[in-house]
Write a structure and sequence with these properties.
Distance between the termini: 58 Å
Number of strands: 30
Radius of gyration: 31 Å
Number of helices: 24
Length: 758
């Protein structure tokens, strides 16, 4: 039976330690001549061999492309939880190039001599099943709480989970007898026997046993790759199986692939000449013949979707209709990549599918799919994601479609004389800062390097250089947009000027930005201060803070944070202040007025690069939970009345995070009608985040909102009517609605503060 697996070739290298470098050199040769996989037997009791795990690590560091695996790991002498962590670490360090072959043990006298416990064949199978449960449990970081497995042979009592490997490490089981074969069908990702140990008919009978066990476990037998260790020699005439000229090898391997379902052939060889000749004269011909035969037969070569994953699919989505251009990279519930794709920085999500286009044409395909699934009618939610950091969390959803443009992340200099750069919407601002820093350039971009370019550059961008250089959107010279109908347009002051106006402040309603042309500014070393204040006299502190900010030079952009109060302690406030000056004396001079606002309880001032300030994103995927609860206002000035209201809000204790970002300066130089972000007279952006929506809304609506002169939607999560009118003045909103009717008449982009009148 042909399972349709992509054909692969590996090599089985003896881990001899005399000379020590020999297996490493053979693995490097295997990579050069085109093998997909290098494997090594694991006999820890054999002093003539390297320790296999040490050897695997050394080979991984000495190669770049080839995958590596034990063939197979001696589980009785390898503690499963440690194996899991070691495997994950090696996979992460090698860029996802590790596979794990597992065996139940065989040479029991030697195992016992090394301190292992002698097991019967049945006990060995049970022990391996327990080990697999532990290994996969350690890798499953989506589950909360410690891992508990109370097995007879292997146990964990609340072991911490992780790290998560770079890719779903397949578990290939070395199996021959019925119980091990049934275990492979239930739990394995691959079956890895050696042809030399098998009698005629054993391969077919073994596969049948695996398939029956897989079916009983609710699995598609195609989920289990069939690997086979083979050995032989080249000669002018045939003297036996895989003993003859290359044509004989080709014929026999093709038969094994098509009749027995072998998808990976692993050549047992320590002979460089045999390895090279095999890959030059046998492997290409085998691939060619199998491809031709599958084409004639119409063999299904699509990867099998596990039954567990099928059960998690969203009922309202037609997965068979996902465009062919997007199928290979689509992320579904139950897939390995889903845990890293489902959430945003603050919001937990469970989308039905995450589509990951790599070109504007594929973005158009994704939008066509979303439309066909009912996104324009509101039957299916649609989220657009660049970095996934937005506080509002609209770039994920439950049961709907997410279009993640993260792969569109190129950063190119278009015209160095103008400092004009083209930036993909999927790039992060940390990556942009690093790329521009080498030229002493920067683009103001919030305060966190993990933010995606697309989200910020279509809404506003209140950053650490804002008072000197304006909002992020003020740097945009052109934007490439895929509209709801799938057309790609370039919007600038000269091309589609209305769309260009709307994309700078309300882009989420109008299309999917895929790239921006932006003007960077000359920025070298800057001062960055972190000051902590005793803010017990909150009204006086806030009023003086606002006045000091407004009186400061434009090169100074301060942000202020006030966390939740702690019982019995004074109220503290922490300031982060960027000063676009390179001379320490000038930096200190600009900071001196702020140091006088209130008693200082901590201070740190450093000379930094803008990239050093902004490139602060923590590694790893987003792990948001639940619904974020955040409120936002823009105010013109922190007057005594505003300071009083903010102090009362802080006293209410409905927040755990409260921030005041300085605006004004260059932000106010831009005419209110120049962009869809119209509140150019605002001096400050104020944001609060809480954990109880009722409490936060009650305090905010009563105390803070009455003083607002606008709203910044990127920091807002309130779903109640009225927020759109708060965010856009009447004339701006009317113009946006007219533009929306032109470029998105069916309201496909409705799931992120929709400007269409209810």
């Amino acid at each position: 039976m042909d399972y349709g697996h992509e054909l692969e070739f590996g090599v089985f290298i003896t881990p001899t330690n005399q000379p020590p470098e020999q297996p490493v050199l053979l693995a490097q040769l295997a990579e050069r001549v085109g093998f997909d996989l290098a494997t090594f037997q694991d006999h820890p009791y054999q002093p003539a061999f390297h320790d296999t795990w040490t050897l695997l690590t050394w080979v991984a560091a000495s190669t770049e492309r080839i995958r590596i695996a034990p063939n197979v790991l001696n589980v009785p002498l390898r503690q499963p939880a440690v194996v899991a962590r070691s495997a994950a670490s090696l996979d992460l360090l090698s860029g996802g190039r590790f596979e794990l072959g597992l065996g139940a043990g065989g040479f029991w006298d030697a195992i016992e001599a090394m301190g292992g416990t002698r097991l019967t064949p049945g006990q060995g199978v049970d022990a391996l099943a327990e080990a697999i449960e532990i290994i996969r449990g350690v890798w499953d970081t989506s589950e909360r709480g410690g891992l508990r497995v109370d097995g007879e042979h292997h146990r964990t009592a609340g072991a911490k989970r992780g790290p998560r490997p770079a890719h779903p490490i397949p578990l290939h089981i070395g199996a021959y007898k019925p119980r091990m074969l049934r275990l492979t069908g239930r739990l394995g990702d691959g079956w890895l026997p050696s042809l030399g140990y098998m009698q005629p008919g054993d391969l077919g009978r073994g596969s049948a046993t695996i398939d029956e066990a897989a079916a009983r476990a609710g699995r598609d037998p195609r989920e289990i790759r069939r690997l086979l260790n083979v050995g032989g020699a080249f000669s002018e005439r045939s003297t036996g199986r895989l003993q003859g000229p290359p044509d004989q090898w080709v014929e026999e391997l093709v038969e094994l692939a098509l009749a027995e379902g072998i998808g990976t052939f692993i050549l047992s060889a320590d002979d460089p000449t045999l390895m090279q000749r095999f890959m030059a004269e046998v492997a290409p011909a085998v691939r060619e013949q199998i491809a031709a035969e599958r084409g004639e037969r119409g063999t299904d070569t699509a990867p099998a979707v596990p039954a567990a994953a099928l059960a998690k699919r969203a009922e309202r989505l037609d997965y068979d209709a996902i465009p062919a251009s997007l199928k290979a990279t689509a992320v579904e519930p139950g897939s390995w990549a889903y845990a890293d794709s489902r959430h945003t920085y603050m919001r937990g999500g469970a989308p039905g599918v995450v589509l990951r286009p790599t070109s504007p044409a594929q973005v158009a395909d994704a939008l066509a799919y979303a439309r066909a699934q009912g996104a324009a009618e509101g039957r299916v939610p649609l989220g657009i994601r660049s970095g996934g950091h937005g506080i509002s969390g609209r770039s994920t959803n439950d049961g709907g479609i997410v279009i993640d443009v993260g792969a569109l992340d190129r950063i190119d200099v278009v015209d160095a004389s103008r400092r004009l750069v083209r930036i993909g919407a999927g790039a992060t601002w940390g990556a942009v800062a690093r790329a521009l820093d080498a030229r002493d350039w920067a683009i103001t971009s919030g305060d966190y390097g993990g933010v995606g370019v697309g989200g910020l550059a279509t809404t506003g961008g209140i950053g650490f250089l804002g008072r000197e250089h304006g909002l992020t959107i003020d740097h945009v010279e052109a934007v490439e947009v895929v509209l709801a109908d799938g057309s790609l347009v370039r919007a600038s002051r000269d091309e589609h000027p209305d769309l260009f106006w709307g994309m700078r402040g309300a882009g989420a309603n109008l299309g999917v930005a895929v790239a921006f042309e932006m003007i960077a500014q000359p920025v070298g070393s800057i001062g960055f201060a972190q000051l902590a204040f005793d803010a017990s006299d909150t009204v006086d502190f806030l009023e003086r803070w606002g006045a000091t900010t407004e009186a400061s030079d434009r090169v100074v952009t301060p942000f202020l944070i006030v966390g939740g109060d702690r019982r019995g302690q004074p109220r503290y406030a922490q300031a982060m202040i960027a000063v676009d000056e390179a001379e320490p004396e000038a930096i200190v001079e600009h900071l001196q007025p702020f140091a006088m606002v209130a008693p200082l309880v901590g201070q740190q001032v450093q000379l930094s690069r803008y990239a050093g300030v902004i490139d602060n994103a923590a590694g790893g995927p987003h792990r948001g939970q639940g619904e974020p609860i955040a409120r936002s206002v823009l105010v013109r000035s922190i007057t005594p009345e505003v300071a009083q209201a903010l102090a009362h809000f802080l006293d209410a204790g409905a927040h755990h995070f409260f921030q005041i970002r300085a605006m004004g300066g260059a932000i106010g130089d831009v005419a209110p009608d120049a962009t869809a972000f119209a509140h150019r007279d605002a001096g400050f952006s104020i944001t609060a985040i809480g954990s109880d929506r009722t409490r936060l809304d009650a305090a905010w609506d009563t105390l803070v909102a009455p003083h607002a002169s606008g709203l910044y939607l990127s920091f807002e999560t309130d779903p109640r009517p009225g927020r759109i009118e708060d965010a856009f003045p009447p004339a701006t909103l009317a113009r946006l609605r007219a533009l929306k009717a032109e470029v998105d008449p069916d309201n496909l982009f409705r799931d992120n503060f929709n400007v269409v009148a209810p």
